[in-house]
Design brief:
Strand content: 15-25%
Order of helices and strands: EHHHEEEEH
Helix content: 40-55%
Radius of gyration: 20 Å
Shape: elongated
Largest sheet: 5 strands, antiparallel
Number of helices: 4
Distance between the termini: 5 Å
């Protein structure tokens, strides 16, 4: 996916949804509950401490592998919010894989995990990692 800035302005409906702290903290809390629950379950069964550490580490590694896209999008969101290569109201041209092709959009909002764009077809949510990727398609 390639991004190009456009000069034209187009009216787009405002979208005022905010990311709540609970929405950001819930996956982190769930990870702590799963890892802590695994450690507690293995200790309560009577396994040695080294086995508990190994099982807990395996659960954490598998959880990290499962959540790598989420972590990548959160990291990209942090970069977009701090560096601000694009701002709200700015026009972008996205090159998406076929059959979609080229899409002109106005940036509405940058959040932690995704970015909201306004296209001729309405509001579209794009993962932040796609906005930072140099060549995704």
């Amino acid at each position: 996916m390639q991004l190009h800035r456009l000069e034209t302005r187009r009216a787009c409906p405002a979208r005022r949804d905010r990311v709540s702290p609970a929405r950001v903290a819930a996956p982190i809390a769930a990870a702590f509950v799963v890892i802590g629950g695994t450690a507690f379950a293995t200790v309560s069964v009577g396994l040695p401490v080294t086995t508990v550490a190994i099982v807990t580490a395996l659960v954490a590694i598998v959880g990290g592998c499962v959540a790598h896209r989420t972590v990548r999008n959160l990291t990209a969101g942090l970069v977009l919010l701090l560096v601000r290569p694009y701002g709200p109201g700015e026009k972008l041209r996205l090159r998406l894989p076929e059959p979609i092709g080229v899409v002109d959009a106005e940036l509405v909002r940058i959040g932690f995990g995704n970015t909201t764009l306004c296209t001729e077809h309405g509001l579209v949510t794009v993962p932040n990692a796609r906005l930072l990727a140099r060549d995704a398609g």
